[in-house]
From TrEMBL:
Family: Belongs to the aldo/keto reductase family.
Boundaries of every NADP-dependent oxidoreductase domain copy: 19-260
UniProt keyword annotations, A-Z: NADP, Oxidoreductase
Protein name (database record): Aldo/keto reductase
Species of origin: Kribbella alba
Length: 275
């Protein structure tokens, strides 16, 4: 087993590993195998969602580890954007995963056209008060959406999971999160394994540190205090992706990676997209 990732303490006190495993797209069988391998290798944060339809497979793998040793995240869809709906969504995820509580439950997308994410948020606050989830958060929320949650409930999310990599550095979101004690989690943290990993700035740093391009990008996120959740179904890549806590990028390398901001394909716009 590799070293465990260090943790970050969320605003309500839960300790979340600073790197985790993404499980989309994986079906139940893939998820059971990949999550099982990841746990063997030392991953202690597993990211799933109602929408991935793999919570049963993830849950099978979780049976191999004491519950309190792993940080389990799930997310729910827009049809559950109400106080009661959040509770129903929690119960469905917990049952599929075979757990009595979740470490983190997220509103998957704000769906502002539906205009019910504040109600979903009230539902999450109630779940946390009931001790059914240790931490609560959002995904794909822009600063304007987050501000509304804070204005209307007085409670900020502990985590906001957004599409973030050197291709889209999301400075405005990161600044807002830092101001409100929200931890930034990154989806597609290695740009879905695409061209980003061949960019000269990434390849040059990889050579300098004798690391893989993905390790360089994940380390950039760690040094920005962002929690990446790279997906891999391959044991070697799983092992490499977790092993980013024993080297350091220079300020110049960090700046060169950050300079790629805006160079990827258009990211998802959560004012329009979402489920
Ligand atoms: N909140 C949201 O709305 C949202 C949206 C999308 C994703 N997510 C979450 O974020 C997670 C990660 O995002 P993502 O899957 O879109 O993108 P990603 O993690 O940036 O990239 C995953 C891709 O990169 C490959 N890969 C993994 N490690 C690699 C390495 N070391 N070198 C080269 N290629 C590598 C993987 O293939 P192999 O499996 O073959 O290694 C896979 O094709 C998802 O699994 C999901 O949990 C959340």
């Amino acid at each position: 087993m590799s070293e465990l990732a260090p943790t970050v303490t969320l605003s309500n006190g839960a300790a979340m590993p600073r790197l985790g495993l993404g499980t989309s797209p994986m079906n139940d069988a893939d998820a059971e195998r990949a999550v099982g391998e990841a746990l063997e290798l030392g991953y202690r944060l597993i990211d799933t969602a109602e929408n991935y339809r793999n919570e049963v497979g993830v849950g099978r793998a979780l049976k191999n580890i004491p519950r309190e040793e792993v940080f389990v995240t799930s997310k729910f869809n827009k049809r559950w954007h109400s106080v009661e709906g959040a509770r129903t969504a929690f119960e469905a995820s917990a049952e599929k995963l075979g757990v009595s509580y979740l470490d983190l439950l997220l509103i998957h997308w704000p769906n502002p056209d539906q205009d019910r994410y504040v109600e979903a948020w009230r539902g999450l606050i109630a779940l946390r008060e009931a001790g059914l989830v240790r931490a609560i958060g959002t995904s794909n929320f822009k600063p304007s959406h987050l501000q509304r949650l804070i204005d209307e409930t007085g409670v900020a999310p502990e985590v906001n999971q957004i599409q973030l990599s050197p291709l889209w550095t999301k400075q405005e979101s990161r600044d807002f999160h830092a101001e409100h004690g929200i931890v930034t989690e990154a989806w597609s943290p290695i740009g879905k394994g695409g061209d980003l990993l061949n960019h000269p700035s990434v390849v040059e740093a990889a050579r300098a540190h004798d690391r893989t391009p993905a390790q360089i990008v994940l380390r950039w996120e760690v040094q920005l205090n962002v929690v990446p959740i790279p997906k891999s179904s391959d044991r070697t890549r799983l092992e490499q992706n977790l092993s980013v806590f024993d080297f350091e990028l220079t300020d110049d390398e960090l700046a060169k990676l950050s300079a790629l901001d805006g160079s990827g394909s258009t990211p998802a716009d959560s004012d329009r997209a979402g489920h």
